[in-house]
Every structure is written in C-alpha cells, then in structure tokens.
Amino acid sequence: MKLPPFEVHRPSSLHDASRLLRDLGGDAVPINGGTELLLAMKLGLAQYEHLVDLKRVSELRGVRRADSVVSFGAGMTHRELEGSPVIAEALAEVPRMLAEVANVRVRSVGTIGGNLCFADPHSDPATFLSAAEATLVLGDGSTSRRVPVDQFFLGAYETVLEPGELLVEVTVPAVPLGTGTAHVRMKVHERPAVTVAAKVTVERDTVVRARLAVGSVCGAPVLAEAIDKLIGASRDTWSERVREVAAMSAAGITPVADAEGSSRYKQALVEVFVRRALDAALADASGVTR
Ligand SMILES: Cc1cc2nc3c(=O)[nH]c(=O)nc-3n(C[C@H](O)[C@H](O)[C@H](O)COP(=O)(O)OP(=O)(O)OC[C@H]3O[C@@H](n4cnc5c(N)ncnc54)[C@H](O)[C@@H]3O)c2cc1C
Known about the structure:
- The structure is a single chain.
- By secondary structure, the protein is of the alpha+beta class.
- It has three domains: 7-53, 2-Layer Sandwich (Uridine Diphospho-n-acetylenolpyruvylglucosamine Reductase, domain 2); 58-173, Uridine Diphospho-n-acetylenolpyruvylglucosamine Reductase, domain 3 (2-Layer Sandwich), CATH 3.30.465.10; 180-285, Enolase-like, domain 1 (2-Layer Sandwich).
- Helix content is 32%, strand content 26%.
- It starts with 6 loop residues before the first strand and ends in a 5-residue tail after the last helix.
- The structure holds flavin-adenine dinucleotide (FAD).
- The site of flavin-adenine dinucleotide has 32 residues, from strand 2, helix 6, helix 7, helix 8 and strand 10.
C-alpha cells in the first residue's frame, strides 16, 4: 500500500482553511489525524492532490462548559476528550464510550471531527451523540450554522457538509440529576457491529423523557420511535416496557448486511442491546453506580 503524491497545506485559522478548500476545489480535502483518510488513500479508495491539515486551526480545539452545555472542538482527539475533567463531570458516559473506540494508537491521533465527518456507519460517537441530543456547529470562519447530530448524516459516508465548510464544534447538554445515559456496543472485527445509546429522565419513579439511538447497523444512526412506549412507565413496569421497546425497535429497523453480520443477525443484536442500554440508563437515572 503506497500513498499517491500530494501537497500538504497548514492553515492556522478556520477562515484560511475554508478558503483554501474552496479555492483548491475537488482536488483538496481536510485532514486531521488522518486515520481514516490516509488509509482510504492508501487503498486507492480516494485520491486528492491537496491535503488541508486542520491541526493548527485553533477554533477546532478546546473543551468548554457554559451553564448546562458542554462544547468541544472538532479537532480534539478521542484521548484528549477521554481525559477531560470537564467532560467527566458533566457527561460521565462520554469517557467510557470513547475508551472503547478503536485502540489507543487510533484514539491518540484520531479526532471526534474526523470520526463524525467520515460518516463511517460503524461509529460509537455518532450513536451516542444522537441519543445525547448533541448539536454540531458547522462553519467556514465567516458564517456558521447549527445542525442536530441526527440530521448531519445523509447515509453511509455522506453528510450535510457543503464544500469548504468544516465541523467546528460539538455541543452536548450536560446530564442533569435524575437523567441517566448509557452506551453499549459489540464488535466482531475492528469496528462495532452494533451500538445503542439511551438517555432517560426519571421523576418520582416515573420515566418522563427518553431517547434511544441505534447505530452501526444501518447507513447512519436511527432514533427509535418505539422509545415513546417507555414514557409514563413507573418503576414496577420498567422491565416489561423495556422488553417491549427492544422488540419493537428491532422489528422497526432494516439493518444493512455487511462484514459484521447478516440483516437478521443484526436485528437480533439490536433487541438485546436496546434492552441492555435501557436497563443501564434507567439504573444510572436512579443513581445506581456502575
Ligand atoms: C483500526 C481502526 C479501528 C476503529 N475503530 C472504531 C470504533 O471502534 N468505533 C468508532 O467509532 N470508530 C472507530 N474507528 C474510527 C476512528 O474513530 C476514526 O478513524 C478517527 O476518529 C478519525 O479521525 P481523524 O482525525 O484521524 O480523521 P481523518 O482521517 O483526518 O479525517 C476523516 C474524514 O473527516 C474529514 N474531516 C476531518 N476533520 C474534519 C472537520 N473538522 N470538518 C470537516 N471534515 C473533517 C476528512 O476530510 C476525512 O474525510 C476506527 C478506526 C481505525 C483506523
């Protein structure tokens, strides 16, 4: 596997990176850690004459908390986010979720932005952030727009990003007391075969809000509508309702068969992993420590 020749550009601002990408047109592509892009180029699946390296773009860096929202730059590596005390305090499931991504070598250079923008269907963060009601800030240094993460993906390897537009920041509501989150997954090979994430809010032993994302089995994460069945459930009916939601979520999805398994196998995985995710999120909402 040999890389074809290319020129690397190293802009230091978002504005300059976007301008370069627009000026160079279809021959140019942004790159951060390169763990996806360079592999695709080595395999001959993609070819670009110009790589616009985003590592010096300061707008893509940092983790901040303002009131009840946590924001992190798209250029942050998985490892940096995993080790952030701000994230650990406000979004305890995020470090646990990121610790399962790939291996430590990939997590040390691979970024959250690269993961989301590559839009590989087998993504842990895409599934988790869909359940967590995250919003993505896209921009070019002059204008910006906010897109809910579940509307960012158009399908496998396709996003709503326009030419020259970059993913700048990810914003996630902090998890308040009484709300539980969980991310569960299984892998057979390198990437997950199934990822399921849940977020539930419990008030006086009753589920008042719930959100469920199923990922890695279709082109992009899917928000399961069956989760509405859990709303209004009191503690004594949780387990029965969770089983119903799991069966309905599996029945309502048509997984894509691929190297990770057949469509029917993945449907069976979805039922099991929805159950696990909801049980774990309900335990988290009730203050049961893991
Ligand atoms: C061996 C291996 C195992 C893996 N296992 C998992 C796993 O278990 N779970 C999982 O979720 N992921 C997994 N991944 C994916 C991993 O998370 C990504 O490779 C990594 O996050 C990509 O980040 P990067 O910075 O290297 O992206 P790059 O390769 O630099 O870029 C990827 C794509 O995103 C674009 N891009 C990058 N940054 C931006 C931006 N800010 N705005 C617009 N476009 C941008 C690039 O143009 C390119 O198309 C695995 C990858 C490998 C190689």
